[in-house]
């Protein structure tokens, strides 16, 4: 395996921090032991946790208004893979990449799979793209894709999704994520019911092409690019569609795809209750689909989502196997740094949720002891789990201080010498 950052650099930095890590880990271990928690067991759980990074998140993305590329930004899937390998090498949290087609199209997927494996990476859910037109495309998506009035457009969208499944098979993926930008900007523009009927018919054709061990993850989004109505606008539409499609169809929750202040953790519990929790796109949001770094705005919400996931895992009902992916895109930071930071925050919330004393929580709930129920969550949330994450990371070969090592490596500067500059232009949705 050839990894992009020098092992010596990581080892040197880890050696400098080894005493601090041991001290902090031991102190936290003693603190947790007082409440009956074995820190090594939590660390082992964290070591088994991972989240996928999106290939498109390796670029700077932008807003609808502008893109401000940085020197050394990746433009091909090969360059993006290398950046993803950096994130995983340092964090040991992100061993899979979620690709987006046709953005990541290549001629040889077997070779791409090997190229990723060489860098310690596998593949997560394949994302289809029927929300923008490609050069030479026969039918425009200007009026929708799976729900378009035009039958040839719908067929084109179905065919593209089936092609994504085929690509995913070659890469070793087992999930297809379908997000459509279909919707309207004007009352009366489309009939709500008929457009949903058309979506369901198209989605069923894709579903029929899924291999047995695959899942189809339906991603809802309240608005944007459509600003009046969206075909799969919320978790209600999503779960109804998933129920109609069949057991392999599940719902994907992108944290930024809800109205402000919506209780996302409750949505997670509901989806799990009905066996339809398929996965997540982690990011944070202040106003809308802002795609900000995970936990940068509302880390408590992220913790509460993981608390529901811990409950769900302990009560699997129809199984528990959500896929975890980051979906963020930036205009102001180096995307590698942002994804390192996000992956760490996500794992922290996972770790904190593992610390919740569930017996105490459930007992307090039974007794209607509201304050103690709340405190069961609060106590776990207040623990600084950084030493647990650092220990798991260092033991797995990652860096104690991921950002410091990344900066010391001058990786981006080196890539700026090798890679061709990114063009200007508008961002993506
Ligand atoms: C969208 C969705 C979806 C999609 C991405 C494309 O979150 O996951 O793949 O952005 O940029 O808003
Ligand atoms: Mn998303
Ligand atoms: Mn989004």
UniProtKB/TrEMBL annotation:
<feature type="domain" description="Xylose isomerase-like TIM barrel">
    <location>
        <begin position="108"/>
        <end position="295"/>
    </location>
</feature>
<dbReference type="InterPro" id="IPR050337">
    <property type="entry name" value="L-rhamnose_isomerase"/>
</dbReference>
<keyword id="KW-0479">Metal-binding</keyword>
<keyword id="KW-0464">Manganese</keyword>
<protein>
    <submittedName>
        <fullName>L-rhamnose catabolism isomerase</fullName>
    </submittedName>
</protein>
<keyword id="KW-0413">Isomerase</keyword>
<dbReference type="GO" id="GO:0016853">
    <property type="term" value="F:isomerase activity"/>
</dbReference>
<dbReference type="Pfam" id="PF01261">
    <property type="entry name" value="AP_endonuc_2"/>
</dbReference>
<dbReference type="InterPro" id="IPR036237">
    <property type="entry name" value="Xyl_isomerase-like_sf"/>
</dbReference>
<dbReference type="InterPro" id="IPR013022">
    <property type="entry name" value="Xyl_isomerase-like_TIM-brl"/>
</dbReference>
<dbReference type="GO" id="GO:0046872">
    <property type="term" value="F:metal ion binding"/>
</dbReference>
<dbReference type="InterPro" id="IPR013451">
    <property type="entry name" value="L_rhamnose_iso"/>
</dbReference>
